[in-house]
Amino acid sequence: MIYLQHLSETDSLLHNSYGEETYRIQPGDVIFVRISSLNKEINEIFNSSDFVTSSYINEISLYYKGYLVSDEGKIEMPVLGKIDVANKTLNEIQQLIQYKTMEYFKEVYVTVKYGGFKVTVLGEVRHPGVFYFYNNKITLLEALGQAGDLNEFGNRENILLLRTSNKGIENKRINLLDKNIIKSPYFYLQPNDVIYVEPIKTKAWKLNSANVSIILSSISTLILVISFVLKIQ
Fold first, then answer.
1. Most buried pick, 5, 7, 53, 121, via CB within 10 A?
2. What is the pLDDT of residues 73-96, one digit of tens each?
3. Sign of torsion, CA 92 97 102 105?
């Protein structure tokens, strides 16, 4: 099965602006904040010792070294205290922390990343489950790929996406065969998205056919047994 059908060479530069800083941090999210400076003392104040001596940030560490956003939508940092991050993008949070840090220290650089976000993939895929991603941008196709892609019974024309926000739960039907999903606001996933792949009608027919075959086979066996018993009487 071919995804994004009728995607021509002229469509090679399709642009999706929705993936650019559209998600706003919510309570329960984890964000990673690193404050870097040429001043060793500043680094030691804001960062754990293993981050002070290393320029490499392990993806798993983004979660375990990150800040959990409280129910009030705040994180609490050394020196800076409580910072309101709810309903802000990562870029807005980076600028806010940069501004607050500059009130105390000069020549500092602030990095803000997702501390890993959860996506659940259910239904007709090869490996359904809960997956954690540590990149700022994850697409619907990447999540399905992580789940092993759709199996033979997956309905590629009617994928259900459930998205939670401060307004409630939004549901959206997506056709993977449509090239225009690249431009959709649902092409890029957000933390806690749930993807459900419904089965095609053929699956129900095959399952029913299998059940009918079993029943017919049982009836045939029963008839043979009865015939044999009648003959020997």
1. 121
2. 999 999 999 999 999 999 999 999
3. negative
